[in-house]
Every structure is written in C-alpha cells, then in structure tokens.
Amino acid sequence: MAILISGASVAGLTAAQRFSARGAEVTVVERAPELRRSGAPIDVRGTALDVAAGMGIRDTLAAHETGAAQRSAFTHIVDENGEKVGALPTELPQDSPDDLEIFRSDLIDILHGSIGPDVTFVYGDSIQEVTDTGDAVEVGFTSGRAGRYELLVGADGIHSNTRRLVFGPEERYRRHLGVYYGILSLPAELGADGEAYFYGVPGRSVLISDYADRTMGGFTFLSPEIAYDYHDVDQQRQLVLDTYSSVRGWKTAEVLDVLKRSEDFYLDSASQVHMDRWSRGRVVLLGDAAFAPSFFSGQGTPLAMIGADILADEWATCDGDLGQAFGRYEQAMRPQVHRAQEGVPEARDRIIPATWEAIEARNHRWPPVR
Predict the structure, then answer these.
(1) Residue-wise pLDDT tens digits, 105-127
(2) Which of 1, 45, 246, 268 is the most buried (most CB within 10 A)?
(3) How far does CA 267 lie from the centroid of its chain?
(4) 71-97+177-271+348-365 domain in CATH 3.40.50.300?
(5) pLDDT tens per residue, range 125-171
(6) 3-66+101-173+272-344: which CATH architecture?
(7) DSSP secondary-structure letter at 179?
(8) Radius of gyration of the chain (CA)
C-alpha cells in the first residue's frame, strides 16, 4: 500500500527519496504551488553527511558549498558607523571541518533531483481530514480528492497541519523562544567582500551576508509571541517595519527599503517543538513537525535528514509492525534532538543580546578580526 508524505521541504524530500529507495510507493503533497526554494543558507553536518552519501548526493552538495567556511569570521559585528567591534569565530557554529553550508535553493533542488520518477508530487493541495481505520489511513484533501495509505508521514514543518489534525493544536507543542527572524535577498551593492556582518541594538539586529553570487539579509528581534497570519507576507513585512521604525545606524535603512518591495521575504518565530510521542497509529511526524530545534541550533536540516533515513529504514525492516518501527525511530533520534535543543539559549543570546551591557560583554568576549 502507498505512503503519503505531507510537506516537500528538506524532511519531506529526504523521506520521499529514502522510502522510495526501500521500495515504497510514495506520494508527496505540498500546500505551496511549487517547491519553496527561498530561505537562508543551511547546514548539512555530522551524520547527515553520511545520509547524503547514502543518497548519492554528498559530492554534489560539496560542489555547491557557499564558501562561508573560508571567511575570516562567522559574522563580524559592527557599530552604527559600520566599524568592527566584535566577531563570532568561524568555528563557533561548526561540528567539524567537514560541515557544509548550502543555499536552501540548491539543497532543495539537489534533494528533489535525487528522487526517482516513480514518486508522485501533488502541489497546491493539503490534507483536510485524517481517519486511521487500523489497517490504513484514509485522507481527505482540500481539493476534494481522497486517498488510502499504509502510512502518513507529517513532514510539514513547525506549523504542521498533520500534527494539528492528528495530535491537537499547535500551542500544545510549539514553544516560542522569544525571538522572530526574517530573511530576504538583497541587491549585490549592499554586500561587502564576501563576509557576513550584523549590527544590533538591544533586542534587535540586522544582518547582511555576502556570497560570491548573491547577498542575503536578515532581521532578528526579541518579542513575545505575536498573533499574525503565517501566509500573509504583507502583514509580516509591516510587522518588521514597525519593529525597526526607531532603529538607526549602519545599513538598517537600506535593508528596510529593500524589505518594502522584497518578493522572497520570509518571517517566522524562533521556536522549538516538544512532544511526548511522534507517532499515533499509522501517522508519524518527522523534522520540525516533530522536533524543531530552532534555527539557532543549526541542526534543523541535519536532524530532518537523519530522521528521514532512520524512519525509512525502520519501516523497511519492521515486517508490518509500525509500532516497533516508530519506537525504534524515536529511540534513535531523541538523544540527538535533546542535544540540539538544549544548546539554543546560549546561541540566541550571542546573536540578539537584550541589553547594551550584554552587547558589550559579547563583543569583549569575541573581539573584532581586523
């Protein structure tokens, strides 16, 4: 019987390739009208590199590495005049020298390209109803279609629709970390010498990260949870403009001006997902839907890829005992998830200190690279 995967991002695409490679008949349903390729560069590291090798894509990923590892610092910290006042070292976010930083667009394309033609992709549709009959999962879609599957994999992100339908409201599981972040592309003239720079005042920072062929910008700010429409980009854009209306200095005004007309701006909360169980019946969650560590950890992509590989392997060897497969999947993943999630507060406080005193202490700890 077929397997349905909800979500066509890193977790969903990796799962589609790994389940298909193990003989499953796979369908992927994605709410967006096409693959979402925009977003910040992301890391592939640790055991995820072994997963990539098993998928036959490790060398391709390495060929698309951003080159950030060759920078003089992970990020230079500047004051309102653009003078360097600190620098986070290149090795700070790394697990090992083998880590790869990949543009999200390249990773999505490479993952998608590794999937054979026997996997079916359905775009512009999403799950509306889920009924677990015991011997199958019956799914109704917003388009009016219906399907019957052996297994439903919810790989649909931190705001998972699958999790909401099967496990309950998002607020039971998602923990807001008091931070929001936004990402957008910038014109090349705002970049500088292939390095990354950020400027901050208490609770708010602006980032410009320059690469060989593109320049990315970002906003990170402290805030209690804000009620807004995750799919309304204009509302999100205005939220950032309002938050930074009083921030002056460096290139803040120029980045805000680009934001007003950006076509690829993305905003979300820095959050983690904590659940007692990642499965129920014939439904299992994967990636950020189950165990989001937050972007501060740098582990979201590796955990998604590792989890997809383990889940597919356990499914293929469980002889129909999904409870056993899901239990082994959780047993293998939970220690890794715990390590990724517990280190987040320190990383958050490095990037977005809440006071001038904390900013000065960070800059003293990590002085500038001249």
Answers:
(1) 999 999 999 999 999 999 999 99
(2) 45
(3) 12
(4) no
(5) 999 999 999 999 999 999 999 999 999 999 999 999 999 999 999 99
(6) 3-Layer(bba) Sandwich (3.50)
(7) E
(8) 21
Helix, strand, coil share (%) of the chain residues, nearest 5: 35, 25, 40
Give CA–CA dist 344/177, Å, rounded: 9
User: Could you tell me the sign of the dihedral formed by the alpha carbons of 10, 93, 51, 109, in that order?
Assistant: positive
User: Which residue shows structure tokens 């205005």?
Assistant: 238
Rounded (10°) angle between helices 47-55 and 10-21: 50
Whether residue 317 contacts residue 310, with contact meaning beta carbons closer than 8 Å, is answered with no
Cβ pair 359, 353 in contact under 8 A: yes
Cα separation, 210 vs 194, whole angstroms: 5
3-66+101-173+272-344 and 71-97+177-271+348-365 agree in CATH topology: no
Plot region of 116 (φ>0 → left; ψ -120 to 50 → alpha; else → beta)? beta
In angstroms, the first-to-last Cα distance of the chain is 61
Q: Give 190: exposed, middle or buried? Use CB within 10 Å, 0-12, 13-18, 19+.
A: middle
| 129 residue type, one letter | E
Q: Which of 53, 42, 54, 131 is nearest to 312 (CA)?
A: 54
Strand intervals (E) in the chain: 3-6, 26-30, 42-44, 75-78, 84-88, 100-102, 120-123, 127-132, 137-141, 146-149, 151-154, 174-186, 196-201, 204-210, 215-222, 266-273, 279-280, 283-285
Q: Check residue 357 and report its DSSP letter.
A: H
Q: Break the chain into its structural domains and give their ranges.
A: 3-66+101-173+272-344, 71-97+177-271+348-365
